[in-house]
Each structure stands twice: as C-alpha cells, then as structure tokens.
C-alpha cells in the first residue's frame, strides 16, 4: 500500500487542511463535516461551502450523534447540486457503501474521506457532561483509554475502508498523518493536491494489524459473553423486555431507509379480538404486541448490512444493548454468505442474488440439518 | 358522595390489583389491560391479561410509564374494538390521551370499562433502569396516601394539575387516602355502578376529591408556575431554540411515543417534505453552511402547531429522548398557552371537538386585522 | 436598520379575494415596495402554518398570509379555520419569544387593491425595523 505523509500534529487539523486544500483546488465545492453545536453539548453535521468556515469543524468528533451515512443519505439520496466531500468514520463509510449497493445513495459524485477511529463516547454520557466526554475522547485518541462505547471496543474495522482517501494516525510518528488513496478518485485527488512524499505507511499498517488482532479477540469474547447473557428465548425476552417501542433504533439506523417500515405499517394492526385471543391462549399478551417481532424482524431485514456503528444503542432510551445484539447476529448472518457489510462497493448484498449450489444443508431432512461452522444455532 | 367500594390494601397499587382481580374472577370482564411487573429489576410493561393468575404480578399504579396506555389502547382498538368486556386501567393523562384519540377517530371504545385513579405521578424512565426505583417505592406510596408531592418525579408530573381523572367509569381514590389501608373505588357512570355491584370490599360512599387531592393540587400548581419560569426551557428567540434542540439526533422518538401523533405518515417524514439537491443549494446560497439532516427546528415547531392543542402533558416524549432534551416541559408550556387560547382541556370532554377541527364565527376578531409594527 | 435592507417576504394569498386584490393593485399601477413574492393558493386555509414556519426557518424575513374576510370565504368556512391556526401559531411565537412581526395573517377583499399596497408597505416597514431574520445566518437550524 502506498501512502503520503501529511505533516500535522493532529488528525482533525490534518483533515481540515485537506478539505480546505481540496476546496481551493476545485476538487469539491461543499464539505459534509461535524461541528460542535452552539450549546457545546453535542455535534451536528454541517454542509459547508467556504474553506474559512471549516475552521469550526471537528472532522473526528467524540460522539456519533447522527451516523454520517444517514446524514449523507439525507443530503444526497437524490444526488447533489454540488460536488460534495464527506469525512466519515470507517463504520459510517461502510454504511454509506451498503446504502449505495441497495441503490439508495448515489456515491459516484461524492468524495469520501475516512479516518482512523478511536471509537466514540456514549452519546448520553457526552450530553450530560460534555467536558468529561472531551477528556475521555482525548485519552481514546492518545490510545491510553479504551473506546467509551461497548460496541466500539470490539470493532475490528476502525481503519482504512472503502473510502477514496484514508487518513491514518495509528502507529505513525508524532507530527505525521498518512494519507492513503483507496480508489482511483482518491489517487487522482492526491496527485492534484500534490501531497508530499511517501509516509510511514509500514508503521501504520503494522499498528493497525496489531490492534485489529486484539480487537478480534475482544469481539469473540464480547460475543461469547453476550450469548450467555442474552441468547435463548427467555434471556432474549428479558433483554428486550424493557423496550418501550419508540423505534428510535430504527429511525437512527443508517441502513433502515424505508419511509414506511413494515413494523409500523397497517399490516401489523389487528382487531382487538386478535390480541385478546393471544391473551386467552397465554394468560396475558404484552402490549404493544409486536416488540419481539420488531427486533427480530429488523435483524432479518438489515443484519446483512449492519456495520455495527452503534447508533441504535446511543438512541435507546432504556439502554438495551441493541447494537451489540445486532452485531452478534450480523456476524453470523454475514459469515453465512462470506459477506462483510461495506467491505467493497462491487460486492452484492447477499439477498439480491443466489447460487443454485449453496446452502445445501437447508434441503436436508430437519433432524440431520447442521448449520455450517460458526453459524450460531446454539442457545 | 358517590357510590363506592372500599378496598383493603396497604397501598393504592395493591388495592388496584385486587380490584382488577375481582373484576376478572367475577366474570364482569373477560380481560384486563394493566401494567405488570415483568422483570426482577422492576421492569414493567402493559399487558392484556385474560387469566386471573397472571394478575399476581399486576402493578396498575407502578410509578413508571413505559408507554402511554391511551395510545396503546387506541392502537389495539383502532381497526375493531373488543368483542368481550375488558377493563383498562389508565392514568389520568393516559385516559385523556384515549379520549383525545377518540375525537381523532382512532378508537373503538365499546366493551371497555375505563378505570383510573388519582395519580401521584411517575418517575423518569431512566431512573428505573437497573432496579433504580425499588428502594423509593414505600416513600412514594406514603406520599400518595398523604397527598404529598413525591421527590424525583418527572418534571411534568410534578407540575401536573390534571391528576384527577375526568370521565372514567371507576376511579380509585389513591391520592390522600390516608394511612388506614382502605381505599375507595368510586363509580362515576352506570357502567361503573354495575361493575361494583357484588364485588368484594365493603360497599359505601366516598369522594375522589379528598383533602389530600386539594393540598396536592396546590403544590402542583406552585410547581407548575416555577417549572415554566426556569431553566432548562429555551431562552426566548431563535438562539434559545437552537441551544435547546441543538443536540437533537432526529430520531423522532418523541413523536413515535406521543399518543396524540397518530398519523400513519407524519408530514415531516413525507416524500413531499424530503430535501432535494435544490434544497441544500438554496441554503448554501444564503449562508456558508447548513445542518444535515435539515429541519430540526421545523420538526419540533411544526409538531407544536400540529398537536400542542391536544397535548395531554403525559411526558412520554421526554422519557423517550435519547439525549435528554426536556421536550415534555416545553410542550406542556406551549400546550398550556395554545389550549388556553381556545379554552380547551384536552381529553376532558369526549363531546367537545379538538380546537383545530372547529371554529366559531364570532371569535378571535383581532387575528387578521392590520397589526403591523412592534 | 438602514434603509437599504429590503426584506424578503413570502406572500401566500387566496385565489378568490386577496390575489384578485393584488392583481387589481398591479393593474392600477399602485406603487409598493418590491418585497413580497406571492404564492397563490385556492384558500388561505391551504396555508398550513408549517409552510410559513418552513419559509421563515430557511431565511425569509416575513410571511404574509392573506385570505377573504370572515364571512366571505369562497368555501364558506375556510378562513375561520385559517384564523384559528394562525391564532395558535401567534401564541406559540409569543411563548417561545419568536418575533410575531414576521408572520402575519390579514383579510384582503377582492376590491381592495389599496389594502394590498397598505399591508405590503406596512409589513415591509415593520420588517425593516425588525432587521434581517436571524435564521439567515444560523447554520444549526
């Protein structure tokens, strides 16, 4: 992999500088970047047209108040009038790629810059105490503190991804940021910007691989623990039991793009007698009646594209570990098809094609059926 | 004084549970909608209960609102109502939401025996997580019995003046019941009279308006005035609103859990209001930058124009907000103003139309007159 | 505010009375400030206050909604409903400390071209006094 050295002490300053240079060089006319809101208690996405205005932005903010992929989707789902550059976290790039594959987000005229991500601070913690949140994030950036959000602690996709340019900070000597072109557009941009000489790419790659290895272990451990805590009908019911049905997890999910979600549609409204019959059969029926259907159904609908960005968990008012549950399920559904959400723009979403010779175990008699290795049928 | 049944029970919740049990076991109703304790850490959910054994864990007045039950009951009956007689235990604000939804044609109310109670208020949802409420419950019930204001309730509950239900077939006089361990269930309608007939518990006469209710009403009124005058409501003007809603993530959970917001597709989610490339282009012609997704303030201000006249102040919106915007307080304050304009109390009278569905020729004469200048 | 400030006003005029009056004002060559861009609707009651809010939030300095006088609505009752809605929004503006000078409802009968001139002039002047809408510069809306 080749990379270019961008001299800078700080990833945010490097990203701002890059955005401004690209704007001045005419590579893009508008930038989608987070900035701290006036009250200082969160960050919001801004679309900016002037290089000078970039000064107030924080390309890599402590929180993911809104998934960058969702912001980009709201901005560009019908195309854009200006050439847009967006600075995203790796998981946000991956979600944007999934939307692109699902034909919801035309990415061809959008330039994506990603950055090495130290994880995010839980949104609720941040809004309650922004200064403590900033302090924690500083430590996460310095590598002396684990990510604040649980889901980030087992993230093994925190670095280069299917963006156009990636900014690497991990493992590089202080004062340097590696710029790694990751697409033809990225290479052309790097050339046009006349970015410097070959940077310390080898050090960066080694550090990313090292951290990835420990994250993969952390992920396995987290999945094992979560299975113990939440897998199986009773434990799952207990975990999801306090859901209040606000569907906030779905609203903030970058992948859930349907205007009318099936689980909010007329299709799920039934006559009172129907629920009454359920109550008579079981003694009692939970209200609303479709909580578990909603969560399991959403797993069926979107887990193949789930990038474990954690927005759902940040949005849950009753602290259900919904991102972790989705992460666990997604790991299994995606591995079933040897698929990884957001890995590659050219890779089709598994439910949009089939091969005749696959999943043979499903046609075996039920009693003999064996799930492939790694596909969790346990608990 | 009205006809009443006097229930034994060391607190109002237990008396309410006993009432539901005897209604169901006597066959007067075939099902009961109530809060039920469903987890070891004080998790509660609404359930429709058909088996009296399942009422063992019922906790009709547990001071927590996982949903507005008026909204749930509307969703349950909007296609077709119950075929069998069912009792539903609703808090006053839930009952008002149910009545309001009836006016919006979202309810089939037949076969429902509506039971309510004078309400001591509920705690914020987040306070209940990880079993956070259990220790405070005895003090809460004591406060309710004495007509005191319990500590730590949701701000909108602490400031709620409509804690005595309008309507309802039966009302449990929870507030100000005293420490005698006897609670009165007062019948307010012929259906309520019928339900009480032959039930366990001594027949008698009682009033919902106890001395405790009167003193609590005074405290609530004072708390209300204070709440509306202090932080964390937005400072006047645009800047205040930007600061107040700046951290909104646009999940719209406030709307999803709002019992009044019953539109299948909200105007603010509709294709017609979706931003286009031109939208952002227009914004960027005017100013150097613009927020994405756009229209955070439009959503909240728009929702105020669409539903504040019917807002029952149930507080669900604030409970559901993942970034703790005290949106319920703001909506209650604005709702109080818009409702006063039309002399309207949402959910009070099922016969009275909602303000934006009616008008009078002789009213608001100054609106539409030439009034320019400051 | 300096005299140069020319406010942007969105007019939402009912097709029957107010727009006819505006037409009459035009045909009669009445002079008035060129501040108001008029959208014609079939009835003032079509103008959901949310339309006005939307315009104000993206930087319009004012919104002027005009309809037939009470009792004269082409559809009998539309403007009574409009009146309730704008009374409500006025209350919301008051409660939130938003500037009520920016959102006005007036009745303009079809024959009163002069009233169009008077109203547009008065609103323009009052917005000149109020100054540019702060939403023009605020990014975090």
Keywords, please?
heterotrimer; A: 379 residues; alpha/beta; 2 domains; seven-stranded mixed sheet; 14 helices; 41% helix; 11% strand; globular; C: 141 residues; Rossmann fold; four-stranded parallel sheet; 4 helices; 4 strands; 40% helix
Write up what this structure looks like.
The complex is a heterotrimer of chains A (379), B (374) and C (141). By secondary structure, chain A is an alpha/beta fold. Chain A has helices at residues 11-24, 68-76, 90-101, 123-128, 130-142, 150-153, 184-193, 201-230, 233-240, 248-252, 272-282, 291-302, 311-315, 322-336; strands at residues 4-7, 30-36, 43-48, 84-88, 110-115, 165-168, 176-181, 284-287. Chain A folds into 2 domains: 4-221, no CATH class; 227-368, no CATH class. Chain A has a 7-stranded mixed β-sheet, sandwiched between helices. In chain A, helix 2 crosses helix 3 (90-101) and helix 8 crosses helix 14 (322-336). The longest helix of chain A has 30 residues, at 201-230. Chain A is globular, with a radius of gyration of 22 Å. The model of chain A has no long low-confidence stretch (mean pLDDT 92). By secondary structure, chain B is of the alpha/beta class. Chain B has 2 domains: 2-228, no CATH class; 233-357, no CATH class. In chain B, strands 3-2-4-5-6-7-1-8 form an 8-stranded mixed β-sheet. In chain B, helix 2 runs parallel beside helix 3 (92-103). Chain B is globular. By secondary structure, chain C is α/β, with parallel strands linked by helices. Chain C has one domain (9-136): Rossmann fold (3-Layer(aba) Sandwich), CATH 3.40.50. Helices cover 40% and strands 16% of the residues of chain C. Chain C contains 4 helices and 4 strands; from the N terminus they run E-H-E-H-E-H-E-H. Chain C has a 4-stranded parallel β-sheet, sandwiched between helices. The chains are: A alpha/beta (379), B alpha/beta (374), C alpha/beta (141). Chains in contact: A-B, A-C, B-C.
């Amino acid at each position: 992999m080749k990379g270019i050295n961008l001299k800078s002490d700080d990833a945010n300053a490097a990203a701002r500088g890059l955005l401004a240079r690209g704007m001045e060089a005419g590579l893009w006319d508008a930038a989608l970047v987070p900035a701290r809101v006036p009250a200082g208690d969160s960050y919001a996405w801004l679309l900016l047209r002037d290089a000078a205005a970039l000064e107030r932005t924080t390309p890599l903010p402590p929180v993911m108040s809104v998934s960058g992929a969702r912001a980009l989707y709201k901005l560009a789902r019908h195309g854009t009038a200006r050439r847009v550059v967006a600075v995203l976290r790796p998981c946000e790039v991956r979600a944007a790629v999934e939307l692109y594959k699902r034909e919801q987000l035309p990415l061809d005229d959008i330039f994506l810059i990603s950055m090495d991500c130290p994880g995010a601070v839980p949104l609720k913690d941040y809004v309650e105490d922004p200064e403590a949140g900033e302090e924690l994030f500083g430590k996460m950036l310095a590598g002396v503190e684990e990510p604040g959000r649980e889901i980030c602690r087992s993230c093994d996709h925190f670095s280069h991804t299917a963006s156009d340019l990636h900014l690497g900070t991990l493992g590089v000597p202080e004062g340097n940021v590696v710029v790694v072109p990751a697409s033809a557009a990225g290479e052309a941009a790097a050339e046009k910007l006349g970015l410097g000489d070959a940077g310390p790419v080898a050090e960066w790659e080694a550090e990313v691989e090292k951290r990835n290895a420990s994250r993969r272990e952390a992920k396995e451990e987290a999945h094992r623990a979560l299975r113990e805590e939440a897998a199986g009908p009773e434990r799952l019911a207990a975990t999801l039991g306090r859901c209040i049905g606000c569907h906030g997890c779905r609203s903030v999910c970058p992948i859930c793009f349907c205007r009318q979600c099936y689980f909010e549609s007329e299709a799920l409204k039934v006559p009172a007698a129907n629920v009454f019959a359920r109550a008579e059969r079981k003694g009692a029926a939970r209200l609303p009646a479709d909580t578990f259907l909603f969560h399991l159904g959403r797993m069926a609908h979107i887990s193949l594209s789930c990038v474990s960005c954690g927005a759902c968990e940040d949005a849950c008012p009753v602290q259900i570990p919904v991102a972790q549950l989705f992460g666990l399920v997604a790991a299994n559904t995606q591995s079933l098809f040897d698929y990884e959400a957001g890995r590659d723009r050219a890779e089709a979403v598994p439910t949009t094609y089939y091969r005749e010779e696959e999943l043979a175990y499903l046609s075996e008699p039920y009693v003999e059926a064996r799930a492939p290795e790694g596909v969790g049928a346990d608990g | 004084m009205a006809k009443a049944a006097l229930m034994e029970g060391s607190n109002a919740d237990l008396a309410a549970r006993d009432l539901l049990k005897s209604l169901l076991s006597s066959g007067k109703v075939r099902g009961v909608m109530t809060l039920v304790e469903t987890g070891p850490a004080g998790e509660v959910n609404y359930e429709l209960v058909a088996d009296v054994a399942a009422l063992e864990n019922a906790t009709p007045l547990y001071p927590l609102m996982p949903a507005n039950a008026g909204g749930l009951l509307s969703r349950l009956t909007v296609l077709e109502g119950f075929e069998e007689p069912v009792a539903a235990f609703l808090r006053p604000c839930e009952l008002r939401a149910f009545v309001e939804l009836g006016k919006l044609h979202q309810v089939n109310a037949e076969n429902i025996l509506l039971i309510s109670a004078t309400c001591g208020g509920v705690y914020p949802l987040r306070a209940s997580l990880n079993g956070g409420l259990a220790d405070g419950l005895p003090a809460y019930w004591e406060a309710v019995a004495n007509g005191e204001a319990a500590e730590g309730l949701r701000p909108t509950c602490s400031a709620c003046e409509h804690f005595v239900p309008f309507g309802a077939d039966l009302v449990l006089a929870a507030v100000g019941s005293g420490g005698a361990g006897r609670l009165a269930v007062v019948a307010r309608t012929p259906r309520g009279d019928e339900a009480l007939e032959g039930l366990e518990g001594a027949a008698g006469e009682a009033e919902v308006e106890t001395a405790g209710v009167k003193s609590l009403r005074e405290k609530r009124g004072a708390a209300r005035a204070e709440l509306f005058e202090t932080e964390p409501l937005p400072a006047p003007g645009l800047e205040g609103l930007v600061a107040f809603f700046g951290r909104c993530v646009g999940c719209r959970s406030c709307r999803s859990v709002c019992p009044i917001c019953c539109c299948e597709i909200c105007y603010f989610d509709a294709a017609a209001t979706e931003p286009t490339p031109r939208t952002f282009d227009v914004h960027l012609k005017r100013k150097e930058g613009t927020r994405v997704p756009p229209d955070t303030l439009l959503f909240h201000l728009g929702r105020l124009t669409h539903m504040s006249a019917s807002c029952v102040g149930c507080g669900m919106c604030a409970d559901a907000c993942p970034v703790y915007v005290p949106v319920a307080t703001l909506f209650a304050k604005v709702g109080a103003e818009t409702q006063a304009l039309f002399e309207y109390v949402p959910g009070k009278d099922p016969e009275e139309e909602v303000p934006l569905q009616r008008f009078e020729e002789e009213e608001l004469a100054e609106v539409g007159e030439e009034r320019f200048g400051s | 505010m300096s005299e140069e400030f020319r406010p942007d006003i969105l007019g939402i005029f009912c097709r029957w009375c107010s727009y006819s009056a505006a037409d009459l004002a035009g045909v009669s060559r009445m002079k008035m400030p060129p501040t108001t861009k008029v959208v014609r609707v079939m009835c003032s009651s079509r103008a959901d206050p949310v339309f006005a809010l939307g315009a104000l939030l993206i930087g319009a300095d004012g919104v002027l909604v005009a309809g037939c006088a009470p009792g004269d609505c082409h559809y009998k009752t539309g403007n009574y409903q409009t009146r309730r809605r704008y009374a409500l929004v006025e209350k919301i503006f008051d409660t939130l400390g938003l500037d009520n000078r920016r959102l006005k409802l007036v009745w303009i009968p079809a024959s009163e071209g002069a009233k169009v001139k008077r109203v547009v002039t008065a609103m323009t002047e009052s917005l000149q006094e109020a100054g540019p809408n702060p939403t023009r510069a605020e990014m975090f809306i």
